[in-house]
Design brief:
The complex is a heterodimer of chains A (668) and B (67).
Chain A (H helix, E strand, L loop, with lengths): L8 H22 L5 H6 L6 H15 L2 H11 L14 H14 L5 H8 L2 H34 L3 H16 L4 H30 L2 H7 L2 H4 L13 H19 L1 H8 L4 H36 L13 H9 L3 H38 L5 H26 L5 H25 L5 H20 L1 H4 L19 H19 L2 H23 L7 H20 L17 H9 L12 E6 L7 E2 L2 H6 L7 E6 L9 E5 L9 E4 L1 H7 L7 E5 L2
Parallel strand pairs in A: 1-5
Antiparallel strand pairs in A: 1-6, 2-5, 3-4, 3-6
Helix pairs in contact in A: 1-9, 1-16, 3-9, 3-13, 3-14, 3-16, 4-14, 5-14, 5-24, 6-7, 7-8, 7-16, 7-17, 7-18, 8-16, 8-17, 9-14, 9-15, 9-16, 10-14, 12-18, 12-21, 14-15, 16-17, 18-19, 18-21, 19-21, 22-23
Chain B lengths: L10 H23 L3 H30 L1
Helix pairs in contact in B: 1-2
Classes of the chains: A mainly alpha (668), B mainly alpha (67).
Amino acid sequence: MEQAIQTTPIFWIIIAGYFALILGFGSYFARYNKNTNDFFFSGRRFSWWLITMSIVATGVGSHSFLKYSAKAFEHGFSSTMTYMNDWFFLPFFLFGWLPIVYYTRIRSIPDYFERRFNRNVRILATIAILGYMIGYIAIGFLTMGKTLEPLLGWDLYTIIWVVAIIAGIYITFGGQTAVIFTDLAQGFVLIFAGLLVFILGINFLGGFDIFWNALPPDFKLPLAHFNKPSNFNFVGIFWQDGVAGSVGFLFMNQGLIMRFMATKSVNEGRKAAAFNILFLLPISTVVVSNAGWIGKAISIVTPEKWDASIKLDHVFTQVAALVTTSEVVFAFIIAAVVAALMSTVDTLINAVAAVVINDIYRPIVKDKDDKHYLKAAMYISAGATLLGVVAVTFFDNFPTLYEAHGFFHSTMTPPLVIAIFLGIFWKRYTTLAAVSTFLVGAFLMYLGNKYPAGLIGPFDHGIAMDPDHPYSYIRALYNTGVCLASGVVFSFIFTRKVEVRIEKFTANIVVNAKAHLNNTEQPISIVGRVYYTVVWGFTNMINSFVLNAADDEKLDGITVWTLDKAREMFKGSKPNDVPGEEPIVHWKIEESTESYVRFSHNQMKEMAANVGDLVYISDKRRWLGGLKSVHSVYAEPHDEDGIVYMTPDLIDSGLLVEGKAVRAEKEM
Amino acid sequence: MHELTFFRTWLPVIYLYVAGGIIFSAGMLIIYKSSRPMHKRWFYVLFFGYFYYLGIHTFLTYAALNF
């Protein structure tokens, strides 16, 4: 394509400079990685505000400036819908998924499926989750390609390949701590850049009154028309984004889960999630959408300045070029957006590596040192990047990024969402029902895709069917419905009693078939051998799906009904919930091969702590956000007030500074 | 552009907070069914959030139609 927006070398120097700055920032914090555990999870040490701001870059990066500006230009303030419908699922997250993930130290979503069901369900979940994340990476690459397309004038796929190579270099610098800190910096920069476009846009138009009065009332309504047009309507987007998307973001986004695992406690995680949804999402939606609103107002007030021939996905770049009269400011805004997209993609690539290493590679290649697994993670990251680039071709078929993303969410999230949800909140949900959710649910979704008019039509709320992209959004309602129905119906058919019977029955057949195959006294014919081999293989497979069906204890701590058990298992004894003070003390080293801290009798009383309780010790400077902090266990007290004795390993992993006081909080 | 019919103005707001409210209530009921001051506080924060967003959408719809 032609270069739509002219740039000079200064523009590209600023872009490269911004990237170098962010890379340097990330690699500085990468030195806090001591092993693969740090690389993927960065320990549970950070304060809520630090995690909240780092989530902004993930949210704004993935739900990007481009796709919302395009919809905002077309449909007005209703582009904010998707950022303002996440609260409904928060009770499930704050009191269900978050404490379960945190207290049971689940490493990944497939890990949850193994604990809740068994290894075979884990394999199904791993396939589904990897598909979900690779799709997300592809959308990230496509968005970056479309951001740079009008600036470079190159072919879209050439840009995407170049971007993918840069992303590969970018990820190898950091690990999770680096990702958190680069995202933290970018969270601030993105909000600043987005609001700057809005302020410059209002200034360009001549004031807020001109902007507001130029737009018709229909354009300013916060929600779209109930059921039309088919490519942007309220009810379809409610089910696609408000239900499938919200749950996907809160429950299935491995990158986000890893952020919450990095908070110093469950309560800090709750604060981060609530603050993000209450205050930062409404700001974020203005940040990502306003270029579309400004563009619309410019096209009405000064139509001669607006290029009406541009593609919708290029609205953001066009507005940024128009309202920033300085090339330096324009370059800064574009750099901020592209770097944030890079962060989102890297978070996902890092998450894919975490899932593949922990769920597939480590169980097969055991007992290697950390260096080996880190190297394997690098290769997996490169593979995920390559698959992401290949998957771009599928999403490029949609008219806009928004619809590509909508179709993707509607299709990929329902089976996983329902399986996670029923697993957490319904004790009677059985292993075979979970398998049915994936397999029967996927089959019914395939049928819906093949016969949309007959199967999705009854749920369409009056939305007209577009024959090229039938029911991009409302299919989420059908898909969620069939997966939920599969899960519930099969839970009633394959109750746990039935599963136990199947387990015994198939185990007997397996033993019997094996006896026939191994019988040397009465050799069987070739046909008999084939028959018993098939019987043995098939029943063995069925048996592996119902293993441990009667094990009641495996539900401890991983459903909402047994959360108290999760806390008890996390601590190793009964939690102590008596509220206490948070004293500031100075630390001294106490040589020991064990790991513990010792406070004075008086300070133990202040904190209402007992020997064996868990304690969180952090540098008293709150602005560090927990970067220098460590968790430990209270040991026998001493008599020196104002002093805490700590073992050397804690000083080392807590990165505590000599002479700097620390704050102590009883955890439980 | 659409005409300002009920389908364009208030029906989406009503549908969002009725359908969303059913989902939200199910979550709150599970919490209730499954005394710690911290938990009680969060229970109230969750209720606050629902009405906070209901207020925002009601105000924005009213503002778009009247200002």
